[in-house]
Structures are given as structure tokens and as C-alpha cells.
């Protein structure tokens, strides 16, 4: 398999952490849409949103998704990449899409421990607990629609990587 692997899911589900580890095992190149946007623009998510609003950020993010896609790549996306129907269609048609599913209480635990507020400014203005539940409720169907594989990602990163390898190459991972 050479097609790109796209990691999707909510903030803090482990797209960057697990995607990077998976790329190393597969010998694939790794890209992250949030990190690439930071590198090419020199601006954090919070700065882009302040200047251009969320719609400006979403437009830039969609452009980056297309730019970083390619063979033998693992691509960690931003948590809101699936809001665009064109992005969902692009990822599904170009590659293999993996949804890392994590319950709200575990997302909250991780995001409280590692807030990274410049890259994760508030989406709703609400308290983090309420925001996570609200955003998950709004996006769950979109993550499911985009995904070829849905993984329980509340386990350790190594366990999640192993589970992905089992889904992609059932014989090789056993
Ligand atoms: N399986 C895991 N178990 C425990 N902690 C994890 C796991 N995966 C990631 N983490 C931790 O949770 C935090 C968020 O992970 P990560 O940045 O990979 O999430 P993300 O899905 O890329 O989030 P974002 O959408 O904001 O980019 C990190 O500090 C990471 O160390
Ligand atoms: O869930 C979201 O909408 C976001 C998640 C992050 O990865 C960043 O892409 C940004 O903070 C928006
Ligand atoms: Mg990330």
C-alpha cells in the first residue's frame, strides 16, 4: 500500500502523536496540517483566527491538506478538517482515513495536561468540558463518514499504532 494515510479525530485524540509513530514504523514521510500551516505562514492557529476568523483558518487548512497529500505519507490533520465536505471526499478518495475515537473525559484529561492554547484556541467560547462534548456531538457523524477505519484510541499510543497496523495489514501485524 502506498496511498496516503490520513488521521482524523477530535483535538487531543492523538493524530499527531500516533501518526508520527505510525509513519516511522511504515517508513513513510510524516506531515501534520497544523504544523505545516505554522511553518509556512509563521502564524499560530490563534493568530490566524484573530486576523482572519475561523473561515480564514479553514480555507488555509484545506489548501495545506491538498499540498501535503502524497504517496507513502502519513498525514495528521487538524480536528476540524472534516467540517468541509470537499476535504472528506478528498481524503476518502486519495487514501485511507483513520478515525481515532476517544471519549470526551479522556480528551479533557489530555487537553488539560497539554493545552497548547496558541494551537488550540477556544472554538465556542465555552468551558473546555462543555466545548469538547458539544464539538464531538457536532462532528461525530462527520468523522465516521470520512473514515475507512474507526479505532479506539483511548489506549496507549503504541497500542493504537499496533491496532492500526492490524487493520491495514492483518497478517503482518500478528
Ligand atoms: N494514546 C495516548 N495516550 C495518552 N496520551 C496521549 C495519547 N495520544 C496523545 N496523547 C497526548 O495527548 C496530547 C494531544 O495529543 P496530540 O497532539 O497527538 O493530539 P491531536 O489529535 O494531534 O490534537 P490536535 O487536533 O489539537 O492537533 C499530547 O500531549 C499527547 O502526548
Ligand atoms: O478541532 C479543531 O477545530 C481544531 C483542532 C486543531 O488541530 C487545530 O487545527 C485548530 O485548533 C482547530
Ligand atoms: Mg495534532
What structural keywords apply?
magnesium; cytoplasm; 5-stranded parallel beta sheet; 174 residues; amino-acid biosynthesis; alpha/beta; Rossmann fold; EC 2.7.1.71; binds adenosine-5'-triphosphate; binds (3R,4S,5R)-3,4,5-trihydroxycyclohex-1-ENE-1-carboxylic acid; binds magnesium ion; 7 helices; 5 strands; metal-binding
**SS class:** alpha/beta
Q: Give unreliable regions as ranges.
A: none
> What proportion strand?
5-15%
Regarding quaternary structure, what we see is single chain
CATH class reads Alpha Beta
Fraction in helix: 55-70%
Question: Any idea what the radius of gyration is?
Answer: 15 Å
CATH fold assignment: Rossmann fold
- pLDDT averaged residue by residue: 96
Total beta strand runs: 5
Largest sheet: 5 strands, parallel
Indicate the CATH architecture: 3-Layer(aba) Sandwich
Question: What strand order characterises the main sheet?
Answer: 2-3-1-4-5
- Distinct ligands, ions and cofactors found in the model: adenosine-5'-triphosphate, (3R,4S,5R)-3,4,5-trihydroxycyclohex-1-ENE-1-carboxylic acid, magnesium ion
Summarize the structure.
The protein is an alpha/beta fold and 174 residues long. Helices cover 55% and strands 13% of the residues.
Describe this structure in words.
The chain has a single domain (5-168), classed as 3-Layer(aba) Sandwich (Rossmann fold), CATH 3.40.50.300. Helix content is 55%, strand content 13%. The chain is built from 7 helices and 5 strands, in the order βαβααβαβααβα. The chain has helices spanning 15-26, 33-41, 45-68, 85-94, 104-113, 128-146, 157-168, and strands at residues 5-8, 29-32, 73-76, 96-101, 149-152. Strands 2-3-1-4-5 form a 5-stranded parallel beta sheet, with helices on both faces. The model has no long low-confidence stretch (mean pLDDT 96). Bound molecules: adenosine-5'-triphosphate (ATP), (3R,4S,5R)-3,4,5-trihydroxycyclohex-1-ENE-1-carboxylic acid and magnesium ion. Magnesium ion (MG) binds at residues 15-16, 32, 34, 76. It is an enzyme of class 2 (transferase). It comes from Biostraticola tofi. ATP binds at residues 12-17, 120.
